[in-house]
C-alpha cells in the first residue's frame, strides 16, 4: 500500500541535511594535521609522523619515519640517510583500540592514542538512528 506524505520545503531541507550529515560518520582526517612533524616513542623506538591518512573510516594510517637515539632519520646504507631511502613505516590505528599496529605487531603509544581518540574518533557520530518525528 502506498502512502503519500506531504512535506514542506523546510521539512525537506532538514531531512536532506540530516541524511548528508549521517553519511559522513568520521570527520576529515585534516583535524589531525597538527600531529604531522611530531615524534612519539613506542616499544623503545622513536617515530616521526610524516603524514596521516584515512578513507573516512575508523582506520587511520600514520606514515612515519624511524629515528635513532640522536633524532636523526634511520635509513640508507651503513647508517647514512640518502634522499628517498628513509626507513618509512606505515603505522595503523583503529578507533576503539588502545594500541597501534606495525606489520601486525602491537605498538603502545598512550598519549598519541588519546589525542587521536579525542580529536578524530570521538567526533564520529554514534547515533545512526533516523528520527522520523520531524
Structure description:
- This protein has helices spanning 9-23, 110-119, and strands spanning 39-42, 45-54, 59-67, 88-94, 100-102, 105-107.
- It has a 6-stranded antiparallel sheet, with no helix packed on it.
- The protein is 19% helix and 27% strand.
- The two termini are 23 Å apart.
- Strand 2 (45-54) and strand 3 form a beta hairpin.
- The protein has one domain (26-123).
- It has 134 residues and is α+β, with helices and mostly antiparallel strands.
Sequence-ordered SSE layout with sheet pairings:
Layout: H1 9-23, E1 39-42, E2 45-54, E3 59-67, E4 88-94, E5 100-102, E6 105-107, H2 110-119
Write a short abstract of this structure.
The chain is of the alpha+beta class and 134 residues long. It is 19% helix and 27% strand. It has one domain.
Order of neighbouring strands in the sheet with most strands: 1-2-3-4-5-6
Please estimate the helix content. 10-25%
**Secondary-structure-derived class:** alpha+beta
- The total strand number stands at 6
What distance lies between the first and last C-alpha atoms, to the nearest angstrom?
A: 23 Å
**Count of runs of 4 or more consecutive helical residues:** 2
Provide the β-strand percentage band: 25-35%
Stretches where pLDDT is under 50 for at least 5 consecutive residues are 127-134
Shape: elongated
Please compute the radius of gyration using only Cα atoms: 21 Å
Tally of domains: 1
Topology pattern, helix = H, strand = E: HEEEEEEH
Amino acid at each position: 500500500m502506498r502512502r503519500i506524505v506531504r512535506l514542506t520545503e523546510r521539512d525537506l531541507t532538514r531531512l536532506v541535511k540530516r541524511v548528508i550529515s549521517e553519511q559522513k560518520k568520521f570527520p576529515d582526517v585534516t583535524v589531525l594535521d597538527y600531529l604531522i612533524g611530531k615524534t612519539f616513542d613506542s616499544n623503545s623506538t622513536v617515530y616521526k609522523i610524516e603524514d596521516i591518512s584515512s578513507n573516512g573510516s575508523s582506520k587511520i594510517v600514520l606514515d612515519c619515519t624511524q629515528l635513532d637515539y640522536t633524532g636523526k632519520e634511520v635509513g640508507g646504507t651503513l647508517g647514512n640517510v640518502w634522499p628517498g631511502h628513509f626507513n618509512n613505516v606505515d603505522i595503523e590505528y583503529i578507533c576503539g583500540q588502545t594500541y597501534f599496529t606495525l606489520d601486525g605487531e602491537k605498538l603502545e603509544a598512550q598519549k598519541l592514542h588519546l589525542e587521536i581518540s579525542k580529536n578524530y574518533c570521538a567526533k564520529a557520530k554514534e547515533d545512526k538512528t533516523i528520527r522520523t518525528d520531524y
